[in-house]
């Protein structure tokens, strides 16, 4: 199995990284894969799994209109809080979460499913150090849970490998989640180097690559987890970076490293090196 090379990582950053072969599950590269990080919006994948389960079982109707509890109205990430008509369906709310990490849609679906039920998804899949932990909040005060989600690269890469293999509950449940994630418009992190169209990569796009991923961002964190398939290979990856206790905003070196990792993944799954293409 071909090992991949990680770039130099800024030592001021708390990193957790793992890249695995999506078919054989062998480890291709890693750095502190069991180190737990705050993962911002990445834990929303567990909400999508719970929603997909309930849609498949018939407990939820995809055309049911969501209710948005007043105590969980939030802004920032997403589109729903800016829309004139917020009476979207369950299926469309899940799509908004997958496409633009929509905070308001997230909270509405969390209220619908119940926070405790969604918190139970990760441990139910065998993950001990990764979970969605709380609603999205406009302000996180000391009396609230410490983070909306947390996780390790080892568990998050395994989550994406299982989703890609159709092993999270069933191919139908896994497929629903991957379909929502296919619309993710945030290609600013690892996915930046793939050169995909950020708004249209549901089908195989540049160099035959198919990406399904979820990102998370805060003022001190960048996280990108995904399943990437190409003509030469398929991988599942998780790259998490936190710099909460730094006096500096380290997003620039973090994103540089993420882009370098993405380029390594692109070359691996396509079998094409960027330098060779330039020479050709």
Automatic annotation (TrEMBL):
One of its GO terms (molecular function) is beta-lactamase activity. Gene3D superfamilies: DD-peptidase/beta-lactamase superfamily. Residues 29-240 form the Beta-lactamase class A catalytic domain. It holds the Pfam family Beta-lactamase2. GO terms for biological process: beta-lactam antibiotic catabolic process; response to antibiotic. It comes from the Bacteria. This is Beta-lactamase class A. It comes from Microbacterium kyungheense.
């Amino acid at each position: 199995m071909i090992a991949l090379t990680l770039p130099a990582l800024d030592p001021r950053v708390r990193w957790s990284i793992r890249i695995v072969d999506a078919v054989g599950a062998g480890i291709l590269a890693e750095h502190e894969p069991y180190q737990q990080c705050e993962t911002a919006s990445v834990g929303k994948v567990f909400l999508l799994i719970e929603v997909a389960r309930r849609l498949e079982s018939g407990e939820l109707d995809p055309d049911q209109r969501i209710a948005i509890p007043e105590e969980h109205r939030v802004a920032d990430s997403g589109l729903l809080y800016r829309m004139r008509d917020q009476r979207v369906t369950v299926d469309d709310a899940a799509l908004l979460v997958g496409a633009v990490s929509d905070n308001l849609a997230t909270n509405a679906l969390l209220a619908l499913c119940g926070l405790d039920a969604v918190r139970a998804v990760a441990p139910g899949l065998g993950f001990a150090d990764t979970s969605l932990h709380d609603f999205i909040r406009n302000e996180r005060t000391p009396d609230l849970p410490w983070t909306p989600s947390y996780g390790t690269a080892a568990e998050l890469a395994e989550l994406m490998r299982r989703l890609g293999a159709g092993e999270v509950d069933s191919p139908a449940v896994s497929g629903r989640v991957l379909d929502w994630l296919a619309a993710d418009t945030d290609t600013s992190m690892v996915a930046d180097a793939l050169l995909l169209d950020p708004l249209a990569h549901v089908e195989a796009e540049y160099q035959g690559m198919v990406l399904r991923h979820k990102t998370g961002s805060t003022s001190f964190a960048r996280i990108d987890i995904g399943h990437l398939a190409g003509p030469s290979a398929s991988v599942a990856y998780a790259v998490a970076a936190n710099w909460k206790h730094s006096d500096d905003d380290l997003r620039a070196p973090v994103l540089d490293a993420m882009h370098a990792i993405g380029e390594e993944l692109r070359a691996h799954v396509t079998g094409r090196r960027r330098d060779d293409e330039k020479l050709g």
